[in-house]
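Known limitations

Structure tokens in this collection are predictions and should be treated as such. Users comparing against experimental data should check residue numbering before alignment. To illustrate the layout, the record for Acetoin utilization protein AcuC is reproduced below. The input appears on top and the generated tokens appear beneath it.
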Amino acid sequence: MSAPRALVYAPQFSAYSYGEAHPFKVERYRLTYELMGHCGLLDFPGTIQVAPPYASRRQLEAFHRPDYLDTLERFSQTDGPQANFRYGLGDVENPVFHGLYDWARLMCGGTIEALRQVTEGGCRAAFSMAGGWHHSHSARASGFCYLNDVVVALQPLLAAGKRVVYVDLDGHHGDAVQEAFYQSAQVLTISIHENGKDFYPYSGFVEEVGEGAGYGYSINVPLAAHSDDLIFEQAFKKVVLPLIAAYRPDLLITQMGADFLRTDPLTRLECTTAMMEYAARAFLATGLPWVAVGGGGYDRLNVARAWTLLWAAMTGAPVADALPLAFVPLARQFTPGALALRDAPHLATPDDYCRAQQALDTCLRFLERRIFPLHRL
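Generated tokens:
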């Protein structure tokens, strides 16, 4: 292996809670790390582990408004109930709790460190599982996200004139990252997600293609509910890979949310862990400096399995199809009967597949007619 792969991790990633009834369970970070250890991936040759720093106020203010940061910090200093709905803070979706601000800064710092490892530290690729907060706007929390780690982390690179491709594979549209770069040609954003017609964040339609200098640099592939691996693979091969090659970026950054898996409780897609491995290997094969961040995923064992397979693909480490025996008792605390690291193959029903194929074909025709010529495709 010519250059190391960096895993950015801290035990504090799992040290807080959104509340027992909230779908976002931070235990997924600990579970992922433990599964990686049981699979022999934490000390695999050619890999390093690094601790994340806390993102500084100066770094955060490169994207986030000071008044929003002031409120987020103040709300994080006590345990009592507090809310400011103008900033999206304190509702059921985005609760506030003691220590939230510093915890969010640590998650954001993880992505900053992953980027540093790739651009300055000599690493071929880096993974920060606690990143991927793609719904956080400059002055509003949204979708369980408080600080937009990717947008914050990219600011110095963009100031240096570098070009970036951001690919978002989360089941939900990467709306706030798209919004941040919607008028820029310096970042090409590509998001494959469940159609927003009746699904949060109700955006990410194929017609959203950027504005001004950014026209043609925001790409969306909204998938119909029940899209499976065959649909996802087509979208990836026909949209993501050609656009990355045509754009010729200095850096590739990808959001690898695990909620496109078919057993996720919040989405209606029907993909398997095979798509996580397929995408990871394809990203690595581009030869580009690559930073991967986490994202969504609301079945904890799904997340642990998917991101363990992602890290294995990033490092080239072999892993068996079954969960390590020593990990099975812990896995069964979350999923009774759990035995598999990789999902069995799965296809959508014929009716669902036909609807999904028709929806994808419509998207592809639009992109091929309106966007691809702009990139000489």
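For this record: The radius of gyration is 19 Å. The CA atoms of residues 93 and 144 lie 6 Å apart. Please report discrepancies through the issue tracker.
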